[in-house]
Amino acid sequence: DVQLVESGGGLVQPGRSLRLSCQGSGFIFGSYAMSWFRQAPGKGLEWVSFIRSRGFRGTTEYAASVKGRFTISRDDSKSSVYLQMDGLKTEDTGLYFCSRVDTIGAEDWFDPWGPGTLVIVSS
Amino acid sequence: AIQMTQSPSSLSASVGDRVTITCRASEGIRDELGWYQQRPGKAPKLLIYAASYLQSGVPSRFSGSGSGTDFTLTISSLQPEDFATYYCLQDYSFPFTFGPGTTVEVK
Prior knowledge:
The complex is a heterodimer of chains A (123) and B (107).
Chain A: E1 3-7, E2 10-12, E3 18-25, E4 33-39, E5 45-51, E6 60-62, E7 70-75, E8 80-85, E9 94-104, E10 107-113, E11 117-121
Parallel strand pairs in A: 2-11
Antiparallel strand pairs in A: 1-3, 3-8, 4-5, 4-9, 5-6, 7-8, 9-10, 9-11
Chain B: E1 4-7, E2 10-13, E3 19-25, E4 33-38, E5 45-49, E6 53-54, E7 62-67, E8 70-75, E9 85-90, E10 97-98, E11 102-106
Parallel strand pairs in B: 2-11
Antiparallel strand pairs in B: 1-3, 3-8, 4-5, 4-9, 5-6, 7-8, 9-10, 9-11
């Protein structure tokens, strides 16, 4: 069964850092791109970051709202993807989800998703 | 960034109803669009990818259509478990962007 589980969320003060982890199981982790999303309380979904597989040089993409503050990385030996979040702002508060990326040609889709980990940025 | 809009923002429907949700992109995105269902307190679930392909395990009452800028998600006969919020997501170009969501409520 393909599964993803996020961890590392918590309460943090503005300006501080947090590192989220997402561990996958039930699939060959290194063969897939991975992505992070978030959802502010009571709001819609927002794409945050994307990392390609090693076969595509592990290159990364970021939303403008987090570029320069967040860093996505992966450790295929641990079937894990990470989101290092620095310089956190109150508007970064939300539930953070990771997802596996399925790709055929130019098409990407996101399945499955983990249950999410909650990040609260507050003084 | 490509802007995605959805209509309606919410709708009330009954079990057995046919429901249609539309999504529009601010520029052409070919067929690079997915539909996701999110129940309260749960992670999103992929329903449709590449605009019209049903994800494995998703009931056949869900269907998607469209290309370019205009897309549609249809639920042919609404079931109790379908009351949820539905989002479209364009994966044509970074940054990937979601529509604001359509909440399907019990009438």
